[in-house]
Predict the structure.
Amino acid sequence: MRLAVNIDHIATLRNARGEQEPDPIAAALLAEQCGAAGIVCHLREDRRHIKDNDLARLRQAVTTKLDLEMAMTSELQQIALSTKPELITLVPEKREELTTEGGFDIMRHFAVVSEFLQPINAAGIEISLFIEPDRHAIELAAKAGADIVELHTGRYALLHDEARAEELTRIREAAAYARSIGLKVVAGHGLDYRNISPFKEITDIEEVSIGHAIIARAVMTGLDEAVKEMIRIIS
Ligand code: PXP
């Protein structure tokens, strides 16, 4: 199973001071050097973390695979067409949410989605739809022109015990169905160091997309060296 690393929260940290560091592009390169199969960023309407200039720099720097997560707006469609990431992932976006809260509602938006995706598809950019692990949603995603479905694991991450096991079964079955109709399958949202292991057994899922847990872990594992280095300098 491959790992795609979402570097949005490096930008969140940088933006807290409005200066240059930490640089999400440097983080992306480091993630690639360490084996990440792809770099993911979400250019939000409010630009709360990744900014337009970050996306342009990521396009220059990333050599594995750049995945632009985006809402279904004509502004983002134009940005995708001019930036040409290897793939885009269509996600729902609400201005007030802290993070993406659920899968894209393909049932509701089917007609517009198909039309929206056409020029992106024609430009040779792969298309992923972030959806719930649901058979009907997967079927519609394929009909709308998706090459990949990213199954939403946010519910799985929040549940416990039997309810979590049931959700995992739902994800496993959805992944098998998606593969059987020719789609590539990714999973993401809320995955972390404690809840990821069962996914190793789901061979239909080729890749996981993880952001927050990795950036949060990096802060804690890196703090040790960062403190020691400062003490060395001032001693
Ligand atoms: N996949 C999608 C479609 C997302 O929107 C996000 C969050 O930006 C992720 C994966 C990564 O989620 P997390 O930060 O919880 O690992």
Observations:
- The first strand starts at residue 2 and ends at 6.
